[in-house]
Design brief:
The complex is a heterodimer of chains A (268) and B (393).
Chain A lengths: L1 H21 L16 H8 L1 H33 L3 H16 L2 H27 L7 H26 L2 H9 L4 H30 L2 H6 L6 H9 L5 H30 L4
Chain B lengths: L2 H18 L1 H8 E12 L2 E12 L3 E5 L6 H9 L6 E6 L2 E2 L10 E4 L11 H10 L7 H14 L15 H13 L5 E5 L7 H18 L2 E6 L2 H7 L2 E6 L2 E6 L1 H6 L4 H6 L4 E11 L2 E6 L4 E5 L8 E6 L5 E3 L9 E13 L3 E8 L3 E8 H7 L7 E7 L4 E2 L5
Parallel strand pairs in B: 3-8, 3-9, 6-7, 7-8
Antiparallel strand pairs in B: 1-2, 1-4, 4-5, 9-10, 11-12, 11-14, 12-13, 14-20, 15-19, 16-17, 16-19, 17-18
The chains are: A mainly alpha (268), B alpha+beta (393).
Chain lengths: 268, 393
Amino acid sequence: MRLYALAVYAFLYLPICIIALFSFSEGRSAASMQGFTFDWYLRALKNPFVMEALWTSVRVAFLSAFMATVVGTMAALALTGMHGRVRKMFDLLVQIAVMIPGIVIGIATLIALVTVFDLVNPWFEPATGWKLSLGTGSLIGAHGMFTMSLVVLLVRGRMETLDHALIEASSDLGATPFGTFRQVTLPQILPAVLAGFLLAFTFSFDDFIIAFFVAGAETTLPIYVFSSIRRGVTPEINAIGTMVMVASLTILIFAQVLLRRTQAQPRR
Amino acid sequence: MLDALAATGKTMQQDQQMSNSPDKTIASDSVAEFIGTTKRFGSITAADGLSLRIRRGEFLSFLGPSGCGKTTALRMLAGFERPTEGDVLIDGSNVSGLPAHRRPVNMVFQHYALFPHMNVAQNVGYGLRQRRPRMPKAEIAQKVAKALGTVRLSDFSDRRIWELSGGQQQRVALARAIVNEPKILLLDEPMAALDAKLRGEMQRELLALQRSLGITFVLVTHDQEEALAMSDRICIMGNGRIAQVGTPGDLYDRPRSRYVADFVGKANILTAEIIETRDKLVTVRLRSGALVAVQQNPDDSRAQADIAIRPEALSLAAPDAPLPVATATLPARVTHRTFLGDHTEYLLEADDLGTLQVNVPQQAERVSGGHDVGARVHVLWPEGTGLVLAADD
């Protein structure tokens, strides 16, 4: 049984470790280890295509996570105030949204966007001189929609454990509904909101499938890695992969710590 | 700024006016009023046609078992619930549609509901920081310091909430409410989370605070001892309705109904036949045939009624002992005897009558030497004690 468990872990993590290990290889092959060097990391960081893709990824991840956090938090607050069948239905929809495969979301979003663009552009373009098309905007939209449900789930979880009497106390002491949100509700759910933001950020940053469908001419880092594999894998790809992994893991661990703090907060 | 003090002065003034011309001051005498106030949650009626005047400066308790509507009444005063029918007035103006944050009342919550992300001083100053136009920071700090002094927590202003004990948290909650100088201070079972010893201490402190501030206190509790100990008046509730309103003494000595007699203190309740009424006294025949004279219930014309008598109003005598005058006797057998320090509680099986409880003070117990379980005794019922209860609604 233990051996079996070890085998599963090895199967899961060994390839990742090997990628990280080979990123330090001196040779040109990404599949063998010869010597030790940081050269591939330097080359990756000096590569203008990599840097441009990275910048696009960061921008998209930040903006989509921001959008998801704001809209998701508002949705979570609204859901907390709801009761009965409507609330159950929305809860279910949010949970389903997290489970739908990326490829379905990618295709669906692509078709939806293209249809909308075709409908809107004939009068929008002459009126404003702008033509709506796939690109950063559609990426942010698609990622924002997808990651919003993550934020809703996290914030809802926190709202469930929040003592409703705190909100009543604030109102009793003369705070307006917005005042209560700013001074009591938000500080109480802030760790969950931040964790939601970080999670949304990494989801968007690491996402390949949805981005592949809706990015249009834009290149995010995962798309760059995918396309360069077709030109032959060098340890430079390993280096990029390792850096992305370390960055994502750091953010995720930070999000976990935030969530832990939410739960461990002393109660009255 | 000196509202709290001014309020005390006003009450005294009004009391004087009251004695001269009672009609003129009725409106300003009440700080809040329920007028036929009903609250329904779906098919459940939590509060059913409440009508009650809360007097300025009094300590009023809503007393009743859980689900009797006392908390709903309090929440309608605070503004957390909107009455389905009827109105709630505060200081003469209708506040039925006014949300909590626009009402001049403050509440001490059952579990205090202190803000965990603020320290003690920030919690206490919260209400003052909501004021528009803004109150100067220095003034807020000064008022917070004064409120913390009032609840003897001056050295705790920088503490985090979770560093405080239950009693200290409650005092912070109290300071957070009174610093706003509310027209009414609402207390929702504030002692429920404290242990018994601390509870007695807090009761005395709360009472002293109420007397010195002159603010009207409205307390919700299911603990009859707490209500009796602290209140000027008690409003007993059952099934969403007001069962009786009165001073603790009133409710104890003259419970209107079986429900009230049962809820406040202990009472023997017996069914009896009304024989004749004379000079506020009613002669009734118990089921065993014994005749006793009890207090009359005004405007009563029933032939049969429940009568109530407190266990300490009855006494015991050996069957061969001489009987005092103007006393009815009921033969009985002792079934239980419990020594309770200052008194001994006897449970008896009275002939053809059922169970009776009699509390004998320790002094009398020492003189008589007590009565063993199984012994035959006479239960003595002095003329004019006990009273006729109104029919339960």
